[in-house]
Amino acid sequence: MSSKIATNIRYFRELNDWTQLQLAKKLNVSRSNITKWENESAIPDLNTLIKISNLFSISLDQLVGKSLSDDFLLKEFERVYSLDTEDERDQQEIIKAIDLLKKNKTLLHDLTKLSQLPVRKQKSVINILKSIIQEMNRV
């Protein structure tokens, strides 16, 4: 399990574009602690794991690498984004999108980068993607 924790700490740290030192300051620990956690030579204690999961806005299950069910992901998604997805079709589409992101970490990373672009550039990229999908559907 420690390798999953190590991988996830590094993954979510990098996803936030934080250095080990920046994460250490946010957690009020030394940078060497972060290095040890990411190199699997140490595991954070429970209180620190809770702080890390809160800082990354993820569940402890996700931080320690426990596989999450689609239903849990959907409920968590609804909770975080205050969605009202009573429509069965909407729920299935969200589950498919989450599943796609779970299976394609590169896509997740790329979408994260997209979300950080200015709105005008986001709209341009989204329009390009819509055009590609429409063209694929025609073929």
| Secondary structure tally: strands | 0
Please trace the helix and strand order, writing H or E for each element: HHHHHHHHH
Major sheet characteristics: none
Average pLDDT over all residues: 84
Which labels suit this protein?
434 Repressor (Amino-terminal Domain); 0% strand; mainly alpha; 139 residues
Outline of this structure?
The protein has helices at residues 2-15, 20-27, 31-38, 46-56, 60-64, 70-81, 88-103, 105-115, 119-138.
Could you please describe the fold and organization of this structure?
By secondary structure, the protein is mostly helical. The chain folds into 2 domains: 61 residues, 434 Repressor (Amino-terminal Domain), CATH 1.10.260.40; 68 residues, no CATH class. It is 76% helix and 0% strand. It contains 9 helices and no strands. Helix 2 packs across helix 3 and helix 7 crosses helix 8. The radius of gyration is 18 Å and the shape is globular. The mean pLDDT is 84.
Task: Spell out the blueprint of helices and strands.
Blueprint: H1 2-15, H2 20-27, H3 31-38, H4 46-56, H5 60-64, H6 70-81, H7 88-103, H8 105-115, H9 119-138
Helix pairs in contact: 2-3, 6-7, 7-8
Protein name: DNA-binding transcriptional regulator, XRE-family HTH domain
InterPro entries: Cro/C1-type_HTH (IPR001387), Lambda_DNA-bd_dom_sf (IPR010982)
GO molecular function: DNA binding
